[in-house]
Design brief:
Blueprint lengths: L12 E2 L2 E2 H8 L3 E5 H9 L6 E5 L6 H9 L3 E4 L2 H9 L11 E5 L4 H10 L2 E4 L2 H10 L4 E7 L21 E2 L3 H10 L3 E6 L8 H18 L5 E3 L17 H19 L4 E4 L3 H4 L3 E13 L2 E6 L8 H5 L5 E4 L10 E7 L11 E2 L3 E2 L2 E4 L6 E4 L20 E6 L2 E6 L24
Parallel strand pairs: 3-21, 4-5, 4-12, 5-6, 6-7, 7-8, 8-9, 8-10, 10-11, 11-12, 14-16
Antiparallel strand pairs: 1-2, 3-13, 13-14, 13-20, 15-20, 16-19, 17-18, 21-22
Helix pairs in contact: 4-5, 6-7, 8-9
Length: 431
């Protein structure tokens, strides 16, 4: 899906499919993903030795399997993501490792699965080195380092610096190398991911930090990871990142390290959002149009239980209206506020960081039209909840001219799966 395509305020199709027909077939709200876009984004990163999909961005096993078939390896940040990677067809061992567990802690399930399947670990805290080394001496690990600075489109997505919980503090590198050596663990790689979004002045700082850290670690380093955070254009006028320039900065760092170490150094990149954000849209039905003083509200059947990014970060998503078939095609633009059905004032899709309600120019709409929230493939469904006892949305993958249901809509009865009323609260009557 092109940048121009994502910013059309009135649309009928997505990736060649009639959106209203998809809504009638699968219901709303529904996430729809275009497989071609994901494959294209993976292809754009082929200059890197390893493309490792950060599945936390969109972890449906069909999407993870698509990434595997397209040649990407996978990152897992939890026991559940390890299970998903295995279910999507990744094997635990290989060179480079098909699955890497990257986290700041081991919960007990994650440590059990890592040991059971001998999955490579990227340690984000000194305690992880102890916990892994005690159970798996003589193994191989990599270290995620916090270089002391960060970057992000929001304070909540900045993963570097002393305000961030992520990674091993850069001043502790030598201490952690000694710690690993006590268990016979070989530290063969370093990983830096310090936030989402990038500019090349900032990127040069990151590359310089990686080079300094790798030289401190010495020739045992055989791989470096640039992490993720590659931006995508959400707003009108935003340009795509220059991937060639991005690669050249990292490759120059890698080349200098290879010269210093006298052996090849593998260069990894770990995209999540970049691979899937533009592939996805969230389809919702407009269920009310109403005036509140000077504001006109479009209220839809999707809320922040389906897409949390606006309420979390004030994130901007392009939006368009899908007219009901047979309705007037001439729809003048008007300034509107778009909100969801939840009993929560923050359930607004057109808001800025800090919760400030904003207006958006959208075509005049009526009940029964659809709202298409675009660039919603990353951090969309994966952050869903059952808040207000709302069922989880359906997910659909468009591939090879076919719309595949890759997650059926949760039923109302399934909302209570796992819940139980204890015997002493059963029976009786309300006061």
């Amino acid at each position: 899906m092109s940048q121009t395509e994502t910013q059309t305020p009135l649309r009928t199709h997505f990736a060649g499919f009639d959106l209203y027909e998809l809504a009638e077939r699968f219901g709303t709200p529904t996430y729809v993903y275009d497989a071609t876009t994901i494959r294209q984004r993976i292809d754009e990163l082929r200059a890197f030795d390893v493309i490792r999909y950060a599945q936390k961005a969109c972890s449906n096993i069909a999407i993870v399997a698509l990434a595997r078939q397209a040649g990407a390896l996978v990152d897992a940040v939890s026991a559940g993501e390890i299970v998903r990677a295995l279910a999507a067809g990744y094997t635990p061992q290989g060179s480079p490792p098909p699955i890497v567990y990257t986290a700041d802690i081991f919960d007990r399930d994650a440590l059990r699965l890592v040991l059971q399947h001998d999955i490579r670990v990227n340690c984000g805290s000194p305690d992880m080195i102890d916990q892994y080394g005690e159970q798996h001496p003589e193994g191989e690990i990599t270290l995620r380092i916090n270089p002391g600075f960060g970057h992000g489109h929001s304070r909540k997505t900045n993963t570097g610096g002393e305000q961030s919980k992520h990674g091993i503090w850069h001043e502790q590198l030598e201490e952690c190398l000694r710690q690993a050596d006590q268990y016979g663990l070989r530290v063969t790689g370093l990983h830096l991911h310090i936030g989402s979004g990038t500019d090349f002045e900032h990127l040069a700082q990151v590359c310089s930090a990686m080079e300094r850290l790798a030289l401190r670690a010495g020739p045992q380093i055989h791989s470096i990871s640039a992490g993720g955070g590659l931006p995508v254009p959400y707003r009108p006028g935003e340009e795509r990142i220059d991937l060639q320039a991005y690669f050249e900065l990292w490759d120059a760092t890698r080349q200098r390290l290879q010269e210093a170490f006298g052996h090849p150094v593998e260069l990894e990149i770990e995209p999540g959002r970049y691979l899937v954000a533009e592939s996805g849209v969230l389809l919702a039905e407009i269920r009310a149009v109403k005036r509140m003083g000077a504001n006109t509200f479009y209220l839809v059947d999707a809320g922040f239980n389906n897409l949390a990014r606006p309420i979390l970060y004030g994130a901007y998503h392009p939006m368009s209206i899908v007219p009901r078939p047979g309705s007037a095609a001439d729809r003048p633009l008007q300034e509107v506020v778009v909100g969801g059905p939840l009993c929560e004032s923050g359930d607004i899709f057109t808001q800025e960081e800090g919760g400030f309600v904003a207006r958006r120019a959208l075509p005049q709409a009526r009940v029964g039209d659809l709202l298409c929230i675009e660039c919603a493939g990353a951090y969309g469904f994966v952050m869903s909840s059952n808040y207000n006892s709302k069922p989880l949305a359906a997910e659909v993958l468009l591939d090879g001219g076919t719309a595949h249901l890759i997650r059926r809509r949760q039923t109302l009865e399934e909302l209570m799966t796992g819940e139980a009323i204890p015997p002493h609260l059963q029976g009786g009557s309300a006061p």
